[in-house]
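Notebook entry, structure prediction.
Reason for the run: the old model in the group folder had no record of what sequence produced it. Starting over properly, with the input documented here first.
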Amino acid sequence: MIFPLCSIGIIYFIFKLVENQSNNQIVLEAMIASGLFLPLNMLIVNIYDSLQKRFVLEQENIIYKENIRFFTQEIKSKEEYEETRALIHDMKNHFLVIQRMARNNQNMDILGYLKDLDIHYSVPRLVNSGNFIIDTMINSHYTEIKENKIKYKINVIVPEKIYIDDADLCILLGNILDNAVVAASKSEERELIISIIYKKHKLHIGVKNSHSEKIIKNTKNLFVSTKKNKMGHGIGLTLVKRVLEKYDGFENIEYDTNYFVFIAELNEKCDEMHNYE
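New structure, fully documented this time:
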C-alpha cells in the first residue's frame, strides 16, 4: 500500500514540475516516466504476493513436520510402553506354567512351550534394520503386501541414526512406497523390490515394482495420477522433489509397460551432524 501511495505522490510532483512547461518534449518524457510506475507497481504487488505465499507454505511445512515428528515420537513411546506392559503381564503367567512343568520334571514340555512362545512373540516384519523411521515406513505395508500376495525382496543396510529429518524421510518413503505397493498389487506379476543403502553420508534408495496401468505425463513432464479421485493426488511427488532438493539429492525414474523403477540419492545435513558431534 505504501509503494502505490508514494508512486501517486511522485507522479503528482512530476506533473506539478512540468505543469507550466511549454516544451512538449519535457511533458512527453514526464508522461512516459509516470507511466512506468504502473508496471513497476504491478511487479511489486506480484513479488509481495509470491513472498506471502512462500511464507505461508513454509509455515505450513514447519507445522506439518512438527506434527510428524511428534506423531513418530508418540507412536514409538506408546508402542514401547504397550509392548512392555503386555509382556510383563504375560510373562507372569508363562513363568507359572513353566514353574509347574519344572516341578513335574517335564523338560521336553518346557522346551516345546518355549518354542511356542518364541513363535507367538515374533512380530511380523518385513525389515528390522534398527532405524525406527525406515523400518516403520516399510513394515506398515506388511499386511497389504501379504494380503495381495506380492513377491518382495527387501535389502536395507542403514545405521540407527541418519542425519535426515524424520519428517522428510516419512514424506519421501511414504509416497514412494505407497505408490509402489498399490501399483504392484494391481499388476499380474505382483513384484516389489526395495533397496535402501547408507554409504559415505549418502542414502541410496531404489524401488522397483510391477504395474499394469498406463503411465501418463502432463505438459510439465510430471506424472499424472490414474486414481479415480484425483483430488489431492500428485502433491506427494511434488513433496518428494522438495525433499530431494533440500538434501542436494536427485532422482531417476525409468519405466516400461511392466515395471516402474525409482532411484534417489540424498546427502546428510552437515549442520545437524556437526551439532550432534
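Summary: The two ends are 48 Å apart (CA to CA).
The old model has been moved to the deprecated folder.
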